[in-house]
Amino acid sequence: MLPIPFLLLLLSSILSPSSAADFCVADLTLPTTPAGFSCKKESTVTVSDFVFSGLGVTGNTNNTLKAAVTPAFSSQCPGLNGLGISAARLDIAIGGVVPLHTHPAASEFLVVTQGAILAGFISSSNSVYYKTLYKGDAMVFPRGLLHFQVQTGRSPAVAFGSFSSPNPGLQIVPFALFANSLPTPLVEKVTFLDDAEVKKLKKVFGGTG
């Protein structure tokens, strides 16, 4: 038998309203921290902080990748801050690709709504999992693992992703390697690519050095 005072305390904690805040709307005027954005004063929060209308707009795929991502993260929808969720729209034109990339802070669940996408990821043991997804198909990409999406078929593809963080983070491998000022000889050393190929890719992605 539990002591009566303990039972009363337990019952009180179950029935009493939570003292935790209902939400922590991001204050975008302050810098972000590893824990996310600081909270706005509740008196300044409006319904607009919980609404994002951009996911119905087709992204601009007129770029090197022929792909566009429209994020709905806490920077775009401040009400997501602290809730552990977010979303994004993915548009891939014919011949387009979202190259190997990673979301350091989140797992992703991708649902195809138009066209076909060859999607996959690489595990930390270098096992590869990939499959062509059609309208209505979905695939999960575990947190932090390299993954990709490639348009297939005869029409542009559209998909929507949900994430287990309001700020999933993003690092695209080709941009990380070839869109910065890392010296060409060093890139060659760490990638095993020859000089001509590294310089070609730096030119494509805008890198220097």
3D architecture notes:
This protein is α+β, with helices and mostly antiparallel strands. Among the domains are: 59-169, Jelly Rolls, CATH 2.60.120.10; 176-205, no CATH class. The protein has helices at 4-15, 173-178, 184-191, 195-205, and strands spanning 67-72, 86-92, 97-102, 108-114, 116-122, 128-134, 138-141, 146-152, 157-163, 171-172. The strands form two sheets. It has a five-stranded antiparallel beta sheet, with no helix packed on it. β5 and β6 form a beta hairpin. The protein starts with a helix and ends with a helix. The model is unreliable at 15-19 (pLDDT under 50).
Quick one: how many beta strands? 10
User: Quick one: CATH superfamily of the domain at 59-169?
Assistant: Jelly Rolls
What pattern of helices and strands is seen along the backbone?
A: HEEEEEEEEEEHHH
Task: Name the shape in a single word.
Answer: globular
Question: What secondary-structure arrangement, pairings included, does this model have?
Answer:
Blueprint: H1 4-15, E1 67-72, E2 86-92, E3 97-102, E4 108-114, E5 116-122, E6 128-134, E7 138-141, E8 146-152, E9 157-163, E10 171-172, H2 173-178, H3 184-191, H4 195-205
Antiparallel strand pairs: 1-2, 2-9, 3-8, 3-10, 4-7, 4-9, 5-6, 5-8
GO molecular function: manganese ion binding
Binding site for oxalate: 103, 108
Domain Cupin type-1: 53-199
